[in-house]
Write a structure and sequence with these properties.
Adenosylhomocyst_ase-like_sf; Adenosylhomocysteinase-like; S-adenosyl-L-homocysteine hydrolase NAD binding domain-containing protein; Rossmann fold; 7-stranded parallel beta sheet; alpha/beta; binds nicotinamide-adenine-dinucleotide; NAD; 2 domains
């Protein structure tokens, strides 16, 4: 196990220089989902030459990269500096472990969203001693200026916004760089890099120490490999860390559902009747936010435990049919398919807003809305009117894709939790003695989760209570944690 240093007592709690959080897409989507809200310092016309056809070099002469425009580096550097302000845990790792270089000798291939927040991670890994090569896990999410800043500072990065499918795999191949170096670690988000290595460079699997995977999709793919007996190295599942789950699902959605709704509709939600489908982590966050602004919230649930939780939290649990005709907003958060179907949509009233916070765009039966008798009118970006023959209009947001990721942003602190966990997972895998981890998929030790949380407490000037020896013995835990058994539900 890595010896974690004590969390700092004092963090930099200053507001960011720009007085605002940087706008970036989440790190938790796979390449198939598009992002449209990431902030771009500069955009280029699609008629320009592909970055693959350009010869570019950093001011140092370094040229092992492929980005849109290296001249945007100074703009990207500002974005990274803003993100650093809200990612105190990674900055702490730099100052506390930077001198020890726990990742000295680590050669990390990374495939994640390339945003200001992931740039902070990549540069932290370098400070900790790792060499990095990076590609984007999504063809739309790269912040071009940030990629330029990484390249200018010497990171071998291969990414730009608006890649073709062919570009995407070309960049992954460049990131692997089999003829240039001997990589020994993988950090993946969505499993595309792992898949590519498995298909095109299987011999690398023999020399890699392990994989750290970020997303649900990637974990799925790893389990498939494992089932087929083809996973010949250990992998860490970051997706299921408690901190990541809670912050991505509950706390992040609690804030971003309102942001997504406001940015698209400008509607006031006080007094509005809202139906939230699913009372899991995401549903709980959405309900809490809407209740807080005075909306009247109804919930649909299939699971009696979650339904009872919704009752206890003061929400009416109903069937869709009971309220479809009266509600002003419908939000799906089930992760299921065909939760809102045509018969529900037919009953909804004029002006009803329909959107989805679940992973895929299967929750609302869109195909049933693409019929000859219904007219679609684009109102503004991410807002469509679907118009019935009698003039009734439904406001469909983001064409049924995740509302918050399509129309809003993910705050740096949420990404700070994820990226700090990724950094610790890489350190644990890299430094683990031979044989500690087998050819399997592992959850991070609870202590790591607790450590990541502890690293973020000073941001809020939160002071933990220290258990006495007697209290710790009474509870049957160690004074320094872990404080809960693995099965504990937070
Ligand atoms: N928007 C985001 O930023 C974000 C973040 C995290 C997760 N997600 C996605 O949101 C979805 C929900 O995630 P979660 O963590 O809340 O999952 P969860 O499993 O905790 O909750 C989903 C709930 O929906 C209920 N449900 C399933 N089918 C239903 C139906 N037909 N009608 C009513 N209720 C139904 C389930 O019983 C469950 O309680 C997933 O697709 C997840 O990938 C989105």
């Amino acid at each position: 196990q890595i010896q974690f240093p004590d969390p700092p007592q004092e963090f930099n709690t200053r507001p960011s220089k720009a007085g605002q959080r940087s706008l970036s897409p989440s790190t938790s989507q796979s390449s198939t989902e598009s992002h449209t809200s990431g902030k771009e310092a500069c955009s280029h016309g699609s008629d320009e030459a592909s970055p693959r056809e350009q010869q570019q070099a950093a001011s140092s002469g370094f040229s092992d990269f492929c980005v849109k425009n290296i001249k945007q580096a100074h703009l990207g550097r500002r974005e990274i500096e803003i993100a650093e302000q809200d990612m105190a845990a990674l900055m702490f790792l730099r100052t506390r472990a930077g001198a020890e270089k726990p990742l000295a000798g680590a050669k990390v291939m990374g495939c994640t969203h390339i945003t200001a927040q992931t740039a902070v991670l990549i540069e932290t890994l370098s400070v900790l001693g790792a060499q990095c090569r990076w590609a984007a896990c999504n063809i739309f999410s790269t912040q071009n200026a940030v990629a330029a800043a990484l390249a200018e500072a010497g990171t071998a990065v291969f990414a730009w916004r608006g890649q073709t499918e062919d570009d995407f795999w070309w960049c992954i191949e460049k990131c692997v760089g089999a003829e240039i170096w001997q990589p020994n670690m993988v950090l993946d988000d969505g499993g595309d890099l792992t898949h590519w290595i498995h298909e095109k460079h299987p011999s690398l699997f023999q020399t890699l120490k392990g994989i750290v995977e970020e997303s649900l999709t990637g974990i799925h793919r790893l389990y498939q490999l494992s089932k087929a007996g083809k996973l010949c190295l250990p992998a860490f599942n970051v997706n299921d860390c408690v901190t990541k789950q809670k912050f991505d699902s509950l706390y992040c959605c609690k804030e971003s559902v309102l942001s997504g709704l406001k940015r698209t509709t400008d509607v006031m939600f006080g007094g509005k009747q809202v139906l939230v489908c699913g009372y899991g982590e995401v549903g709980k966050g959405c309900c809490a936010a809407l209740k807080a602004v005075g909306a009247v919230v109804y919930v649909t649930e299939a699971d009696p435990i979650c339904a009872l939780q919704a009752c206890m939290d003061g929400f009416r649990v109903v069937r869709m049919e009971e309220v479809a005709a009266q509600v002003d907003v419908v939000i799906t958060c089930t992760g299921n398919k065909n939760v809102v179907v045509r018969k529900h949509l037919d009953r909804m009233k004029n002006g009803c807003i329909v959107c989805n916070m679940g992973h895929s765009n299967t929750e609302i039966d869109l195909a049933s809305l693409r019929t000859a008798e219904l007219r679609w009118e684009r109102v503004r970006s991410h807002v469509d009117h679907v118009i019935w023959p009698d003039g009734k209009r439904i406001l469909l947001l983001a064409e049924g894709r995740l509302l918050n990721l399509s129309c809003s942003t993910v705050p740096s602190i949420v990404l700070s939790i994820t990226t700090t966990t990724q950094a610790l997972a890489l350190m644990e895998l890299y430094s683990a003695p031979e044989g500690r981890y087998k050819q399997d998929i592992y959850l991070l030790p609870k202590k790591t989760d607790e450590f990541v949380a502890a690293l973020h407490l000073p941001t809020f000037d939160a002071h933990l209570t220290e258990l006495s020896e007697e209290q710790a013995r009474y509870l049957g835990v160690s004074k320094t944690g872990p404080f809960k058994p693995h099965h504990y539900r937070y």
